[in-house]
Amino acid sequence: MVKVMINELLCKGCGLCVRACPKGVLALSKAKLNAKGYHPAEPVNPEACIGCASCARTCPDVAIRIERE
Fold first, then answer.
1. Cα 20 to Cα 9: distance, rounded to the nearest angstrom
2. How many angstroms separate the CA atoms of 4 and 25, rounded?
3. Number of domains in the chain
4. What is residue 69's predicted lDDT score, i.e. its pLDDT?
5. Residue from 9, 49, 7 nearest 26 by CA
6. Which listed residue, of 1, 16, 36, 53, carries a Cα 20 to 30 Å from 62's Cα?
7. What are the b/e assignments for 29-68, b being 16+ CB within 10 Å?
8. Are 59 and 2 in contact (CB under 8 A)?
9. Helices vs. strands in the chain: H and E counts, helices first
10. Helices (H), the chain
């Protein structure tokens, strides 16, 4: 089992992780704003995650962590 953890306080909503994910696991939130006023990324299809960590490697703010159970 793989889980995508996003630190919403660090995320600036650039969308690089969304484009990097080969499985469409992430999307920018349309409803949430973080403390800095950005729409953070969020897992919208977490069961499709294969744990490749493309999103985490692409994130310039190191806001994404992949946890394996």
1. 20
2. 9
3. 1
4. 81
5. 49
6. 1
7. beeeebeeebbbbbbeeeeebeeebbbbebbeeebbebee
8. no
9. 2, 4
10. 16-20, 54-58
User: Structure pTM?
Assistant: 0.91
pLDDT, tens digit, 9 for 90 and up, residues 5-37 = 999 999 999 999 999 999 999 999 999 999 999
How far is 50 from 12, CA to CA, in rounded Å? 24
d(CA 6, CA 34) in angstroms, rounded, equals: 12
Domain of 10, in residue numbers: 2-68
- What is the reported pLDDT for 48? 96
Look at residue 19 and give its three-state secondary structure. Answer: helix
Query: Do you know the residue count of the chain?
Result: 69
What's at 22, amino acid-wise?
P
CA atoms of 49 and 43, how far apart (whole Å): 9
Distance in angstroms (rounded) separating the CA atoms of residues 49 and 33: 24
